[in-house]
């Protein structure tokens, strides 16, 4: 006689409660609340996305600062992250985040950078329209437009800004502090003062070609350059 069968009163075998099937307890892997996922699904898609249109963004981690606080029983560490975010098409922003862990600090800084993105007009989609200067604290930066093929002549935090912004040709100079926070803020102050010929012409009630003519260009060259201006 098999171990899973028991004789009843009439002599016929009857099956016990152990049928060999999967158990449905709360602690099993297939259970409702006892599984690892807890009924909430897997957390595989944790990549940050743009809240506006879901487009891909360029994220640059500029600086991470670690601070420690001495408490009873040891030291407590904290991290501060500085992140620059851009779409590579003329929009960029920076953010700062603090947390006890590095990934959480980076995610906070990225979220803050997405909310503070600004639009910077670009000439031919590769360089700035005109020169500019920015000042914040002890940081002084100068940004200049450059011809095609120049590349990004910038270092440190400023390079991350122009790479995320989508600028291909620019010449920069930083004088004063090398603090990345002040350099980033001074750079964005210089970028915030950028204006395009189209916006100036619209504000003054003139044509773009009229503004270009005042620079000494001929009528035909001014018309051709004005037609090439996109923003």
UniProtKB/TrEMBL annotation:
Residues 1-54, 193-231 are annotated as: Disordered. Keywords: Ribonucleoprotein, Ribosomal protein, RNA-binding, rRNA-binding. One of its GO terms (molecular function) is rRNA binding. Residues 27-54, 207-223 have a biased composition (Basic and acidic residues). Residues 57-120 form the S5 DRBM domain. It comes from the Bacteria. GO terms for cellular component: cytoplasm; small ribosomal subunit. Part of the 30S ribosomal subunit. Contacts proteins S4 and S8. The N-terminal domain interacts with the head of the 30S subunit; the C-terminal domain interacts with the body and contacts protein S4. The interaction surface between S4 and S5 is involved in control of translational fidelity. NCBIfam families: rpsE_bact (TIGR01021). Belongs to the universal ribosomal protein uS5 family. HAMAP family: Ribosomal_uS5_B. Located at the back of the 30S subunit body where it stabilizes the conformation of the head with respect to the body. With S4 and S12 plays an important role in translational accuracy. This is Small ribosomal subunit protein uS5. It comes from Sphingopyxis flava.
């Amino acid at each position: 006689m098999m171990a899973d069968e028991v004789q009843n009163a009439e002599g016929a075998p009857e099956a016990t409660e152990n049928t060999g099937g999967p158990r449905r307890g709360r602690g099993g892997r297939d259970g409702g609340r006892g599984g690892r996922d807890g009924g909430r699904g897997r957390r595989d898609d944790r990549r940050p996305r743009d809240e506006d249109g879901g487009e891909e963004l360029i994220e640059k981690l500029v600086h991470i600062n670690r601070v420690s606080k001495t408490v009873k029983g040891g030291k407590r560490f904290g991290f501060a992250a500085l992140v620059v975010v851009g779409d590579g098409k003329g929009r960029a922003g920076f953010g700062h985040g603090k947390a006890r862990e590095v990934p959480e600090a980076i995610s906070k800084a990225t979220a803050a950078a997405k909310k503070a993105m600004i639009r910077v007009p670009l000439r031919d989609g590769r360089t700035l329209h005109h020169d500019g200067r920015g000042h914040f604290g002890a940081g002084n930066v100068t940004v200049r437009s450059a011809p095609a093929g120049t590349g990004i002549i910038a270092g440190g935090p400023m390079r991350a800004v122009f790479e995320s912004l989508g600028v291909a040709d620019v010449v920069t100079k930083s004088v004063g502090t090398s603090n990345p926070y002040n350099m980033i803020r001074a750079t964005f102050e210089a970028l915030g003062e950028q204006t395009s010929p189209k916006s100036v012409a619209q504000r003054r009630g003139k044509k773009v070609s009229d503004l270009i003519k005042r620079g000494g260009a001929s009528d035909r060259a001014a018309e051709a350059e004005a037609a090439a201006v996109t923003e």
